[in-house]
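Exercise 7b. C-alpha cells:
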C-alpha cells in the first residue's frame, strides 16, 4: 500500500509560485514588490509559502518565516529572533542551536549588532515592555541586512493576527519600517481577505513598498484532477469517478488529499488494483459521514467555532436552509420563520467569517463539501428520531449513490442542454461574474438549435424568449476565432426578430481579435470560469469538458 506522504506531496500552483519567485529574484536585483497572499482557510497558503522557501533554499537570500495564527507577542518576539539567527547559521554552515542564548553566542562574532539588538528585545519582552520590544523587532531586519550585506524575505503567515498584540498602531508602525527597508521583501498571508484588504488599503498603502495582492482559490477542475492522479500514484481510478471527486470536493486540496488517502487505504484492504464506485462510496462514508471521520470532525469543529452559544440555533438553521438551496433573503425568511433582522445579522456574521459569500441577492455557502455535509449529514443527525442502528448510514449511502449517478447523467449531457437547463433557473437577478455585472432575465420557450453559418459551419445554440426580447446563446467548446465570429455575427444579423441579447459561450476562450470585435458588437462573452460560476450559483454540477 502506498500512502500519501503529506510532507512531500505539494502539487500545482505553478502560476503563483512563478510570481513569488520573480518577486524574490527581483529583490536581489534591487527591485522590491511586496506581496499579500489572500485566501480562505485551508486553501493552501501555508503549503505554498513553504514550497516557495524550499525551492529557493539554494539562493543567497534569507527567509524568515513566522506563522502568527493564534500566537501571542512572546511567541512573535522569540520566534522572530530565533529564526533569523538560526537561518543565518544554517546558511553559513555553522553549528545550529535551538536555544536563543546559544544561538546568540554562536552568531555574536559575525553579527554583533544584530545579536546586541536580539538580546535587548529578549530583555524588554521579559519585562513585559511590549511596545518598545515591537519597535526594536521592526528595526531588526534592517540591521541584519546591513550586517550581512544580503537580502531578507520576511514571510508573515496570518499577519492580521498582529492586531491581537494590543500594540497601538501596530500596522502603521510596520508600514513605516517597510517603506525604508529596501533590502527586505515582505510576503504576508491572510485567511480573512476582507480584514486583510482593509489593513492593506488603510494601513499598509505605502508610498514605497505597496503590496501586490494575490488571491488563492481552490484548485480548478484540471488541477483537481491532477492532484487526484498525483495522490493515487498509479492506483487506477476511472475518469468519471475522478471527475466526480474533483467536483464533490469543490477542488479543495485538503479534502482531495484526505479522500485519496482513504481510497488508497481501502483499495489495499480490499486488494483492489482499480478503484470502483463501491470503494469511493465507502471512502466518502468513512471520512464524511462517520462522526469521527477526519473531514466530518473538521466540519464539526468549524460549526462549533461559528456558533456562539446565544445564537447557535439560528446560525445552524440558517446554514441548513442555505445548504438546502434557499439563497435569497426572502426565501430564507419564508422557510425559517425568523425575523428579518435576525436573518440579516446572522448572515452578515457568516459573511464576515468567510463561510458565506454574496453575489447579487444570492447567498451561498462557499465551501461546496461543507454545504453538502450540512445538508446530508449534520442536519439529518440533528433531526434523527429513529435511532435504529445503521438506518442513517444506509440512507447516506443511498444518497451518495444517487449523487454519483446524477453526476454521471449530467456529465453525459451536451453543453447546449446544460446551458438550457441553467437558463430555466434564471429569475431576473443580477450577478457579478469576473468583475462584470450581468442581469439575467427569466425565460420562457427555451430551445436548443443549430446555427449554420454561410461558410457551412454549425454551432450549437440556445434561444430563449423573455419580456425584454429574445436571447441567443452560441456555444463552442474549442476556441472561437475571428472567422468563427464573423460567421456568427452574420447569422445573428439575419435573424428576425434580431435577438436583443447575444452571448458567446466558449469553454476555451476567444482569440484576441474575436474578443475585441465581440465586445464592440455588445455581445457578452462567457468562458469556462464564468459559466461554472453560474453553475455554482444555481447549484448545478460544473461543466466537465
Ligand atoms: N498545492 C497543494 N498540493 C497538495 N496539497 C495541498 C496543496 N495546498 C494545500 N494542500 C493541502 O491542504 C492542506 C491545508 O493547506 P494549508 O495549511 O497550506 O492551508 P492554509 O491556507 O494555510 O490554511 P490556514 O488558513 O488554516 O492557515 C495541507 O495540509 C495540504 O494537505
Ligand atoms: Mg496557513
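Sequence design result:
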Amino acid at each position: 500500500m502506498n500512502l500519501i506522504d503529506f510532507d512531500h506531496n505539494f502539487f500545482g500552483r505553478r502560476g503563483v509560485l512563478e510570481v513569488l519567485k520573480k518577486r524574490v529574484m527581483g529583490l536581489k536585483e534591487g527591485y522590491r514588490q511586496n506581496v499579500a497572499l489572500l485566501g480562505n482557510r485551508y486553501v493552501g497558503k501555508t503549503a505554498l509559502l513553504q514550497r516557495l522557501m524550499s525551492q529557493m533554499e539554494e539562493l543567497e537570500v534569507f527567509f524568515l518565516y513566522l506563522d502568527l495564527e493564534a500566537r501571542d507577542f512572546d511567541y512573535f518576539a522569540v520566534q522572530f529572533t530565533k529564526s533569523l539567527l538560526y537561518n543565518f547559521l544554517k546558511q553559513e554552515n555553522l553549528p545550529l542551536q535551538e536555544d536563543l542564548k546559544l544561538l546568540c553566542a554562536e552568531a555574536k562574532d559575525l553579527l554583533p549588532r544584530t545579536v546586541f539588538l536580539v538580546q535587548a528585545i529578549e530583555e524588554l519582552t521579559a519585562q513585559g515592555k511590549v511596545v518598545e520590544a515591537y519597535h526594536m523587532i521592526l528595526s531588526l531586519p534592517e540591521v541584519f541586512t546591513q550586517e550581512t550585506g544580503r537580502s531578507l524575505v520576511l514571510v508573515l503567515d496570518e499577519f492580521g493576527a498582529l492586531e491581537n498584540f494590543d500594540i497601538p498602531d501596530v500596522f502603521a508602525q510596520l508600514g513605516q519600517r517597510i517603506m525604508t527597508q529596501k533590502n527586505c521583501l515582505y510576503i504576508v498571508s491572510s485567511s480573512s481577505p476582507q480584514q486583510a484588504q482593509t489593513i492593506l488599503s488603510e494601513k499598509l498603502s505605502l508610498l514605497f513598498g505597496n503590496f501586490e495582492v494575490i488571491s488563492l482559490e481552490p484548485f480548478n477542475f484540471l488541477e483537481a484532477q491532477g492532484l487526484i492522479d498525483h495522490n493515487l500514484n498509479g492506483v487506477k481510478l476511472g475518469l468519471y469517478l475522478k471527475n466526480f471527486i474533483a467536483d464533490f470536493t469543490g477542488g479543495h486540496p485538503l479534502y482531495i488529499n484526505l479522500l485519496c488517502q482513504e481510497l488508497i487505504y481501502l483499495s489495499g484492504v480490499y486488494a483492489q488494483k482499480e478503484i470502483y464506485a463501491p470503494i469511493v462510496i465507502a471512502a466518502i462514508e468513512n471520512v464524511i459521514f462517520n462522526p469521527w471521520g477526519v473531514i466530518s470532525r473538521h466540519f464539526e469543529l468549524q460549526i462549533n467555532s461559528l456558533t456562539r452559544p446565544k445564537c447557535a440555533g439560528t446560525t445552524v438553521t440558517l446554514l441548513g436552509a442555505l445548504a438546502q438551496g434557499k439563497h435569497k433573503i426572502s426565501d430564507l425568511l419564508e422557510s425559517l420563520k425568523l425575523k428579518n433582522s435576525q436573518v440579516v445579522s446572522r448572515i452578515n456574521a457568516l459573511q464576515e467569517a468567510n463561510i458565506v459569500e454574496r453575489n447579487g441577492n444570492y447567498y451561498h455557502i462557499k465551501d461546496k463539501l461543507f454545504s453538502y455535509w450540512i445538508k446530508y449529514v449534520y442536519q439529518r443527525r440533528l433531526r434523527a428520531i429513529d435511532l435504529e442502528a445503521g438506518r442513517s448510514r444506509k440512507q447516506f449511502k443511498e444518497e451518495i449513490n444517487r449523487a454519483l449517478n446524477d453526476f454521471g447523467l449530467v456529465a453525459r449531457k451536451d453543453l447546449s442542454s446544460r446551458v438550457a437547463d441553467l437558463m430555466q433557473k434564471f429569475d431576473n437577478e443580477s450577478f457579478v461574474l469576473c468583475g462584470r455585472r450581468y442581469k439575467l432575465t427569466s425565460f420562457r420557450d427555451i430551445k436548443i438549435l443549430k446555427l449554420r453559418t454561410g461558410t457551412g459551419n454549425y454551432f450549437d445554440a440556445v434561444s430563449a424568449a423573455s419580456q425584454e426580447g429574445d436571447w441567443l446563446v452560441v456555444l463552442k467548446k474549442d476556441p472561437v476565432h475571428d472567422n468563427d465570429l464573423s460567421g456568427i455575427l452574420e447569422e445573428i444579423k439575419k435573424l428576425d426578430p434580431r435577438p436583443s441579447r447575444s452571448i458567446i459561450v466558449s469553454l476555451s476562450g476567444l482569440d484576441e481579435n474575436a474578443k475585441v470585435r465581440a465586445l464592440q458588437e455588445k455581445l457578452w462573452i462567457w468562458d469556462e470560469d464564468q459559466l461554472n460560476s453560474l453553475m455554482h450559483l444555481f447549484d448545478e454540477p460544473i461543466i466537465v469538458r
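Instructor comment: The chain is about 50% helix and 15% strand. The first strand starts at residue 34 and ends at 39.
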